[in-house]
């Protein structure tokens, strides 16, 4: 366990500098976004009220009150989140290939550690999870910063304050990253871990069987998706919606568990018996 | 003892090892010799479970390789196995973190023997010094067996001499060594056993001392005889 902790720490540090840059981009983009959007709104209000003699009430009727809902769906917030999401998705693949294809073949060292080889898999998966949670924690703090900035820039009569929950609910995309309940949290992040495990297994298939492995990886990925959605397919196509939603969820949890366990088992087998450096 | 028994390995349809068998004992230096592509590195990788074999068996002290074996046997490939961004001291710390068999005293001794600075970054090292760091990371483990893949490959004569010195020092002591090399001249006198490979098979396996005493032939003489016939 101590060695596993060290392995996670080591893996975490390897991407940390790029991670800090991503955090920096997210913070800067959101703060600049709040300042730019709020200033534009205030400038518009000033122009309308002082130059065009529009009343406060009329201005708000026409433009709405300034709130996070104006900024949330804008590129200022969406773009850095998309960059972080794409970077983490890319890193999910890069985290393995960098050990084979880098200047020095570090995979030799990782596979010769006196630990179960599956702990290399687990450490990489944990790293991805930690980065994701870290980013979410930072975004939660940023929501408070964003709200405070709005308060500083936009006067009370023009501003509608939102709670963190309301800020999250401004659009669906953020709802995926910030689940509204514990059950949703388990579902979203459980699903995330399954995706990570399946992708890792596909990479290990390719690394074990190379060209043939690409085909195996595609087949494995397709099989994993099929097994995962099997209860839904059967319920709608064969059983004519026989299952209650609760039963369907239980069936989904079972198939998700099957996919997760089979991915870990397959990866364990590949790392011990089939892997090639 | 390392026992390689009737090992077969194919890459795609191409057979690389065709029933290779040999043993390497503790306290002896065994050399795997053959031209490029005969499967020397594949054998090393197979011993460390870094490439799967199609048939045969490899035993280390009578057991199949398992996670604990990596405290008893280590492999020093021809390229360094640490990240270029690491300093030598980071690489040593990494080894210390993960291996119970890491011997810091020996590591320090090797640092001064090779005249390396632990603050140096791996990416900035010359090829010779990279090879020395690679060797240091393997030799500082208190293991029974060391596998070395082409430790003299592409490095200058002074570095080669320094590395060759290691083989006569207490740093090797009673450990078992399997080495693959083209630079046979540098270490011929140090070898206890030689396994000559060609086209995926063992052409000849012999004890160097016996060969010298009984037939009056050096390793190079036997190589000439075997590969030219």
TrEMBL record, chain A:
<keyword id="KW-0472">Membrane</keyword>
<feature type="transmembrane region" description="Helical">
    <location>
        <begin position="186"/>
        <end position="205"/>
    </location>
</feature>
<feature type="transmembrane region" description="Helical">
    <location>
        <begin position="249"/>
        <end position="271"/>
    </location>
</feature>
<keyword id="KW-1133">Transmembrane helix</keyword>
<keyword id="KW-0812">Transmembrane</keyword>
<feature type="transmembrane region" description="Helical">
    <location>
        <begin position="217"/>
        <end position="237"/>
    </location>
</feature>
<feature type="transmembrane region" description="Helical">
    <location>
        <begin position="16"/>
        <end position="36"/>
    </location>
</feature>
<feature type="transmembrane region" description="Helical">
    <location>
        <begin position="75"/>
        <end position="97"/>
    </location>
</feature>
<protein>
    <submittedName>
        <fullName>Uncharacterized protein</fullName>
    </submittedName>
</protein>
<feature type="transmembrane region" description="Helical">
    <location>
        <begin position="118"/>
        <end position="142"/>
    </location>
</feature>
UniProtKB/TrEMBL annotation, chain B:
<feature type="domain" description="ABC transporter">
    <location>
        <begin position="2"/>
        <end position="224"/>
    </location>
</feature>
<keyword id="KW-0547">Nucleotide-binding</keyword>
<keyword id="KW-0813">Transport</keyword>
<dbReference type="GO" id="GO:0005524">
    <property type="term" value="F:ATP binding"/>
</dbReference>
<dbReference type="InterPro" id="IPR003439">
    <property type="entry name" value="ABC_transporter-like_ATP-bd"/>
</dbReference>
<dbReference type="InterPro" id="IPR003593">
    <property type="entry name" value="AAA+_ATPase"/>
</dbReference>
<dbReference type="InterPro" id="IPR051782">
    <property type="entry name" value="ABC_Transporter_VariousFunc"/>
</dbReference>
<dbReference type="GO" id="GO:0016887">
    <property type="term" value="F:ATP hydrolysis activity"/>
</dbReference>
<dbReference type="Pfam" id="PF00005">
    <property type="entry name" value="ABC_tran"/>
</dbReference>
<dbReference type="InterPro" id="IPR027417">
    <property type="entry name" value="P-loop_NTPase"/>
</dbReference>
<protein>
    <submittedName>
        <fullName>ABC transporter ATP-binding protein</fullName>
    </submittedName>
</protein>
<keyword id="KW-0067">ATP-binding</keyword>
